[in-house]
Structure formats: structure tokens, C-alpha cells
Amino acid sequence: MTRLHDEVERLRRGEMEKALDLVRHSLIRLYDQILRQAEHVTGPLGVEELRALLTALADEAADTVARTGVERYAPRPGEAYDMALHRPVGRVAAEGSEADRTVARVVAAGFVQGERVVRKADVVVSRWEPDAS
Questions:
Q1: Average pLDDT of the chain?
Q2: What pTM value is reported for the model?
Q3: Which CATH superfamily is domain 72-127 in?
Q4: Which of 29, 51, 83, 90 has the fewest Cβ atoms within 10 Å of its own Cβ atom?
């Protein structure tokens, strides 16, 4: 019985190491990408250049996460608010009743693994408040 338990534990450790290797290799790729980008900087960056650089690095980080089976989820403005997928971080007035409880703006993407929500997307929600007059 002890030998069987030891074998199961050895297999578990091996599976865990495989999973960690996937993450390690992805993080190393991200590290390399950051260094490659840094080598191309020869002077002060303008706002657009810096925005493009940071967006490229964020995309690479999302790709790293995707290699672990977790996908980025970015709701579209106008999409119905869904408490299972969205975390409200702000509220704005809706332009009409049809826009009530819809996503006005995405603050941060969410991440899902199949049907499982790993992190909800941070969104600003539109709310319709008819005039009280």
C-alpha cells in the first residue's frame, strides 16, 4: 500500500512539474520579449510609441496565460451586463432605456478557462435613470 501511495505521489509531482514547466517556459519567453523590446529603445519614447510597446507586452503576457489554457475575454461596449462574467467598477448614465445595464466601457479584460471564469472583466456599467420631472 505504501509503495502504491509513493507511486501516486511521484506521478502527481511529475504532472505538477510539467504544468510548471509550461508556465516557466512562457514566462521566459515573456522575459526575452521584454529584453528584445528594450534593445530597440534608443531615446525617449513618445506617447504613441510607449502605448504600442506596452500593448505588445500585455498581448505577450496574455499569450503566455493562453498557453496554460486560460483565454482573455474582453466584452464589447453595449453587451448586456452579466454578473457571472463582469465586475462593475463604475457607473455612467445610459443614453436611453435600451442601454440600461449594458457595458459602457471595459477597464480590464477578464480571463476564462472553458466555462470557468478565472477573473471577471472589470467594466463600467450604463444605467438608465429617467428624468424625475
A1: 86
A2: 0.70
A3: Head domain of nucleotide exchange factor GrpE (2.30.22.10)
A4: 83
